[in-house]
Amino acid sequence: MNQKNLPETIGLFGLGLIGCALAGRLIAAGVTVRGFDPDPNCMAQLGALGGHPMLADQIWDADCVISAVFSTDQLAQLVDQSPVSNDAAIISVSTCDPSLMPGIAEDAARRGHDLIEAPISGTSADLAAGDAIFLVAGDRAIADHLAPVFEVLSRAHFHVGKIGNGNRAKLAINLVLGLSRAAVAEGVVFAKAVGLDPADFLDLALQSAAASKVMASKGPKMVARDFSPLGRVNQSAKDFGLIYEQAQRAGQGLPMAQRYLEVVADSLAQGEGDLDNSAVMLAIERATVPNEDSS
Question: What is the pTM assigned to this prediction?
Fold first, then answer.
């Protein structure tokens, strides 16, 4: 550990928007970051940040490893391919299926790793600015040992209990966020449809009782039609698929989430998956009122 009690070297799997934001903060704090991603452009970006792009099997030679891969399956595969008897802790920051996390943690333990679940609440821009939070779950002593990592990466981190609870909390938060984005998008589309200037409407809405952090961050992107990604539509689709699946297992209906999935499916069908998640506005714009039979 260095003077901030941070690990000297951290391995990082997954160098997309979140992974590079993590790398940037760690490198700025003086940590040596070794990273891998199958996309050569992502590897080059890590190098530009001052990190060390390496082959996958070289990432494990680190004090701890962060997994920022896309899916639960990719996390499980990463753990399955980890070296046995390497005592590096694994911090999983991805949104994963909470029902599968205990099994993945058991697999990690059999290979000599402590798995800590720490999904992120916030965009990649929030993370880069140190304004995201981490929802930490798993062994409390291990999580406390890794607290300096969370402290340099975020404005706060919260221990929410056993493995699986981190992603349960993340999915519940993302349910609110996704529906909030859709509400802002529908409001902007409606305002324009009835003759209001979208920018003027947004300025007014931000001063109203409807104002929210989501509106403040995503509203300007919608008005400017700037869908450069801070969080992608395909990630939102993955998360809402998990949300709906978990709700079904619990016997809970989520009518708004079901409708949101339909909207996101339209976005994906139009090839908009890599756009910012505020681009759900485009799917709402495409919605039309069915023609009524006037006879």
Answer: 0.91
